[in-house]
Design a protein that fits this description.
The longest helix is centred in the N-terminal third of the chain and has 42 residues. By secondary structure, the chain is of the alpha+beta class. α3 packs parallel to α7 and α7 packs antiparallel against α8. The chain has a 6-stranded antiparallel β-sheet with strand order 1-2-3-4-5-6. The chain has 2 domains: about 230 residues, no CATH class; about 90 residues, no CATH class. The chain contains 9 helices and 6 strands. The radius of gyration is 27 Å and the shape is elongated. Helices cover about 60% and strands about 20% of the residues.
Length: about 350
């Protein structure tokens, strides 16, 4: 690597981290202003506010908006270089436009790796503290009761519970059906079901029917102990919990829920794809930012930044709208996560080819 490469990398990363720190500082001030009444009302200790909320707050929002700050940073310092005729001098010295992109690509790769590590392993652990804090002091979103639960707890075993209370661990009016292929071989119903430990459940006032060809065996009793590979917490997992899972845990959960036939998996699939789409967006937005700002134009940096802000707003709009469409089964989770990158890549490639000529 040449001295010029290090110069561009330092400009890129320095501008990015400076803008991130500046914006996050402003975000913390606004967020504190909004929530300070809740903090005083609930008498939240200062240590919990800092350690359980604002420390996890920083990496979470940094990762969320990293691609957008990459775009703005590239436009800002590249426009400044173009305005100072630095890019003209670089090309006059014999460096081609393609070679000029190398330090940009290296910087984008560094930020890509950082985003993958933060989003896949660091943020899930810190988000657990932040969401728990929010649920306890700011906005209660954890459900205490679940209704009409149906899932395949193991191959050929379908569990249905009409109502389940999280705090007591008791469910009402449940049925357990076992199939061999497409043939129902056993159906157990009970007035109550409650969890003991180690995947051990108890049934109260149960009725068990066993089918063998045309014959049926009926069994009734006050109590029956059974074993099922499911725990009560799995009945209350919501979309917010996707942020608390590491990438391997998220992949395992999605696979397990698909096997169980659960319909509450769309938000988790979107989260899975976004953990790869958002970091890869760093390369696309870097490419677009360089091609937009590497030429000296009338209006200078202000014009480029204005266009960049508009495109950033469109990127956020695409991401938000496509995610909503996916949750409502209008769009696949893959398209919901990757649509902004596909659209911006379609814009970037022709502009890059034109700029390189």
């Amino acid at each position: 690597m040449k001295r010029l490469d290090w110069y561009i990398i330092k400009k890129f990363l320095g501008t990015f981290f400076f803008s991130i720190v500046l914006i996050l500082s402003i975000a913390i001030v606004f967020d504190l202003t909004e929530k300070i009444d809740d903090f005083f009302e609930n008498q939240v200790p200062l240590r919990e506010i800092i350690w359980d909320y604002y420390i996890p707050f920083l990496p979470y929002y940094m990762n969320m908006f990293s691609s957008l700050f990459i775009f703005i940073s590239v436009i800002f310092f590249t426009s400044k270089m173009a305005g100072n005729s630095e890019i003209i001098a670089i090309q006059a010295a014999g460096m081609s436009y393609h070679r000029l992109m190398v330090p940009y690509a290296i910087s984008a790769t560094i930020l890509f790796v950082l985003a993958v590590v933060l989003g896949g392993w660091v943020i899930p652990r810190t988000s657990e503290r932040m969401l728990s804090f929010t649920d306890r002091y700011v906005e209660h979103f954890t459900k205490e009761n679940a209704r009409n639960i149906q899932m395949e707890v193991e191959p050929g075993c379908i569990l249905y519970i009409e109502s389940f209370q999280h705090r007591s661990g008791i469910g009402y009016r449940c049925s357990i059906e076992r199939f061999e292929g497409k043939t129902l071989v056993m159906r157990t119903t009970a007035d109550r079901i409650y969890y003991d430990s180690l995947e051990c459940w108890h049934l109260d006032n149960y009725t068990q029917r066993t089918f063998s060809g045309m014959h049926e065996t009926l069994e009734r009793g006050q109590r029956k102990d059974i074993t099922m590979p499911v725990i009560p917490d799995e009945l209350f997992i919501t979309a917010q919990h996707a942020q608390q899972m590491t990438t391997p845990e998220l992949r395992h959960y999605i696979q397990r829920q698909r096997e169980r036939g659960s319909g509450n998996v769309k938000a988790f699939e979107v989260e899975w794809h976004k953990r790869w789409a958002n970091p890869l967006g760093a390369f696309i937005l870097t490419l677009l930012g360089v091609t937009m700002s590497s030429r000296r134009v009338r209006g200078g940096m202000g014009k480029n930044l204005g266009i960049g802000i508009v495109l950033t707003a469109l990127y956020i709009l695409f991401s938000t709208v496509s995610t909503t469409f996916s949750v409502n089964n209008v769009m696949s989770p893959f398209m919901a996560a990757w649509l902004p990158n596909i659209v911006f890549l379609t814009i970037s490639v022709p502009l890059y080819i034109r700029a390189s000529r």
